[in-house]
Amino acid sequence: MAACLRAPVTGVGPLIGTLQRDLGLDAGTAGLLTTLPLLMFSAGSLFAPHLARRWGLTATIFAALVGIFCGVLLRSAGTVATLFAGTAVIGAGIALGNVLLPSLVKSDFPERVAQATSVSGVSMGTAGALVSVCMVPLALWFGWQGGLLAVGLLPLLALGVWCLRAQGMARAGSMSVAAVGPAPAEPSVGRIWRSAIAWQITLFLGFNSVMFYSMASWLPAILTDAGFTAVVAGSLHGEMQLASALPGLFLGPVVARFGDQRLMAAGMALLMTVALLGLLAYPALAVLWVALFGFGSSGCFLLAIMFMAFRTGSAGQAASLSGMAQFIGYLLAASGPALSGAMHEHWHSWQGPLLVGVGLTLLMATCGALAGRDRQIH
């Protein structure tokens, strides 16, 4: 399921130029293709906890996977209208999966939250990087419609696995209300929005989302302005996504040993600070700075997902916290690329946006240190 939460979106970036040429899209309209999923992530986050309480985790995630698959089919139909409609449907499906992943981990792996979250992170990063690398060759062989359609294999595979999961639970007689049916309302869920810990986790995730999606949008332009060729800039953009898969390989076992994650959360955010300062001061070492940024950002994302399980007392409460954090986080993220571009146009330089990014990552480190304390929302 986690492999379906990034790849359908990251696969569009390499084809933006082709889509503009074949469909006659201007720059602003093409930019909306990268912003629309983030807006859908944010809006969908509000409804995911309610749907999970009403239908249960298994049924809601199944519906999310069906939505992603249908969105991929619609997006590949070949017109501007279906391109945007399919992108919106994909975004809505991914929004449900994003929010319910911490709840699923809390429900199915209560004693192995860190390990299960890390495996999910590796799956997200690897699938996203693989699709980004393969999309252009697939488009050359089968056209851009065929390239985008190929991403549908991921949700199709996940749907097959999810059907087996539901059948296995039915045979075991464990189709309980908590697992797959409507879940009872919890008195503490309504207090999530008034919890200081919830806001610390929300801002930690939100600032990270702003930085990641801003860099995902503008890193090639930053590097070409620094003197790199377009080919090298594109390769470094792919490197950032590959580096994002690495924290999941070791973060789970390390986090599982500690109840307190303050130093780890602050340290991952500060890696992003160092990376941005490096791009400002020594852009020639971009291969190092880009890897550090991708590594730190992915580490922060995985820790934020873990916090949603660590700091809550039940799967329902984890879903509510995840919905709050991702609604605000992706709303902030949707504004990041546009604001970064506006600052670049105003100052005619990337120094301003990068310095603002340094400030945001320092705020992230503070929020991470607070969210990483060993305590729960009551």
Can I get a quick summary?
Keywords: Membrane, Transmembrane, Transmembrane helix. With 378 residues, this protein is an all-alpha fold.
Structural write-up:
It is a single chain. It contains 14 helices and no strands. The chain has helices spanning 7-10, 16-23, 27-55, 57-75, 80-108, 113-150, 153-171, 196-225, 230-243, 247-256, 262-281, 286-310, 315-347, 351-371. The model is unreliable at 174-187 (pLDDT under 50). The protein is globular. It has one domain: Up-down Bundle (Growth Hormone, Chain: A), CATH 1.20.1250.20. The longest helix is centred in the middle third of the chain and has 38 residues, at 113-150. Helix 3 (27-55) runs parallel beside helix 5 and helix 9 packs parallel to helix 12 (286-310). By secondary structure, the chain is mainly alpha-helical.
Could you name the key traits of this structure?
378 residues
Q: Work out the number of β strands.
A: 0
Number of domains: 1
CATH architecture descriptor: Up-down Bundle
CATH class: Mainly Alpha
Rg value: 20 Å
What is the molecular shape? globular
H/E element order: HHHHHHHHHHHHHH
Total helices: the number is 14
How would you classify the helix and strand content by structural class?
mainly alpha
Q: Mean pLDDT, nearest integer?
A: 86
Into which percentage range does the β-strand content fall? under 5%
Largest sheet: none
CATH fold descriptor = Growth Hormone, Chain: A
Alpha-carbon distance between the termini?
A: 30 Å
Q: How much helicity do the residues have? A: over 70%
| CATH homologous superfamily heading | MFS general substrate transporter like domains
